[in-house]
Amino acid sequence: MDLSTAELAKYIDHTLLKPQARREDILALCREAAQAQVMSVCVNPVWVSTVHTALKDTGVLTCSVVGFPLGATTTESKVFEARGAVADGADEIDMVIDIAAALEGDEDALVEDIGAVAAAVHEGGAILKVIIETCLLDEAAKELACRASVTAGADFVKTSTGFSTGGATVEDIALMRRVVGPDLGVKASGGVRSRQDALAMIEAGATRIGASSALAILGTE
């Protein structure tokens, strides 16, 4: 498989989630994103309004994370955080699941958690991506988390936060695509650093790539 640079750019969420990122770093990220015409810029909630303003009229979306990076906050907290980010201008929300619930096989708890955030996000006209943190789950838990995301009304499932013990793999993308079917988005995130990496993920079923190395992937660095 091959894509033009412009086509590949539309798969990419240009990402900066490090806690030490400063305003100048975020604004530089936005300039890079606008020039490369990636799909979105993904940042922590504190930067959403800054990014939304910086990206005005560029065609690049604003994405924020919720319950990040552990997922171990209450559903109410995730809903509050998601609503705030959407109000600040986020077009997309990437939430972290309750990882313990997935490991315990508690599909109802996952559906409740994801569904509440999905409802809040959709009410604001945004879309929801669900981070299942594949590196911490066995195959059964991965499948469970994907099924729960479909049932709960999510728009995407996503592999990783990039802050745990591993990132995206081709095998996990293929598993996620198999479970969620053809209609839900699948986002590969964590460790995707080259064009070859990105194309392999897309060939396996990814429809979005989360990367802090977007310029290297696109060959525009």
The CATH fourth-level homologous superfamily = Aldolase class I
What is the CA-CA span between the terminal residues?
A: 22 Å
CATH architecture field: Alpha-Beta Barrel
The CATH class is identified as: Alpha Beta
GO cellular component, one term: cytoplasm
Organism: Micrococcus terreus
Protein name: Deoxyribose-phosphate aldolase
Catalytic activity: 2-deoxy-D-ribose 5-phosphate = D-glyceraldehyde 3-phosphate + acetaldehyde
Quick recap:
With 221 residues, this protein is an alpha/beta fold. It is built from 10 helices and 8 strands. Strands 1-2-3-4-5-6-7-8 form an 8-stranded parallel β-barrel, surrounded by 7 helices.
Topology at a glance:
Blueprint: H1 5-9, E1 12-16, H2 23-36, E2 40-43, H3 48-54, E3 61-66, H4 75-87, E4 92-96, H5 99-103, H6 107-123, E5 127-131, H7 139-152, E6 156-158, H8 170-180, E7 185-189, H9 195-204, E8 208-211, H10 214-218
Parallel strand pairs: 1-2, 1-8, 2-3, 3-4, 4-5, 5-6, 6-7, 7-8
